Structure to design on (211 residues):
């Protein structure tokens, strides 16, 4: 089965659909224009970067990622190269022992075939989440971000993202930060499907975050 991928044409359709169905999103869409997520297929590097960046500020993550790459003479390492380094080597670059082990687990799974990227495009969202979360250190949030910003899947509802929760709380005038169940109900009530990714992008932008 072929699944849709975000494109300028699809982004335009999404904006029209969401603006006509969700009064809270309509002014955000008018302000920020079309969703400009740009999918790519560098899946391996995306996952390594996601693991390195977990629970870090953008600045700290960029610094540690550069030190990580410096371990490999300035080039992004292959899975084979990662397994030639020890956890102590990665610790010296600023990674925790946990993240060092997560990256090594990812490399091992790629090399032994437990994780394959060439068929992800043929899987549905739930199947992709199941495959990715089998990797140590990759949870549902990381899988959602991977599907949204790397694969360009247009219909991912990131119920676990704090920015989305805060944006929804503000846009929809909620007293408290919404639960995943409440987010799902808001998405359904305002007809976000089949453009939940794009709706999340607009909510994130409503917080005045940079791209």
């Amino acid at each position: 089965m072929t699944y849709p991928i975000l494109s300028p044409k699809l982004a335009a359709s999404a904006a029209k659909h969401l603006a006509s169905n969700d009064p809270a999103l309509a002014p955000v869409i008018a302000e920020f224009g079309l969703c400009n997520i740009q999918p790519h297929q560098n899946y391996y590097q995306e996952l390594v970067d996601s693991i390195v960046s977990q629970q870090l500020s953008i600045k700290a993550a960029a610094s540690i990622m550069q030190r990580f790459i410096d371990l490999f003479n300035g080039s992004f390492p292959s899975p084979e190269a990662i397994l030639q380094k020890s956890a102590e080597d990665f610790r010296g670059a600023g990674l925790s022992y946990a993240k060092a082990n997560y990256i090594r687990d990812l490399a091992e799974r790629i090399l032994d075939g437990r994780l394959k990227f060439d068929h992800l495009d043929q899987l549905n969202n739930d199947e992709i989440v199941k495959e990715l979360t089998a990797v140590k250190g990759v949870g549902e949030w990381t899988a959602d971000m991977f599907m949204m910003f790397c694969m360009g899947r247009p219909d991912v509802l990131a119920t676990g993202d704090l920015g989305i929760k805060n944006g929804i709380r503000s846009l929809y005038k909620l007293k408290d930060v919404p639960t995943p169940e409440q987010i799902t109900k808001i998405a359904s009530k305002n007809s976000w499907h089949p453009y939940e990714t794009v709706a999340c992008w607009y909510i994130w932008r409503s917080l005045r975050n940079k791209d």
In short: The longest helix spans residues 97-112.
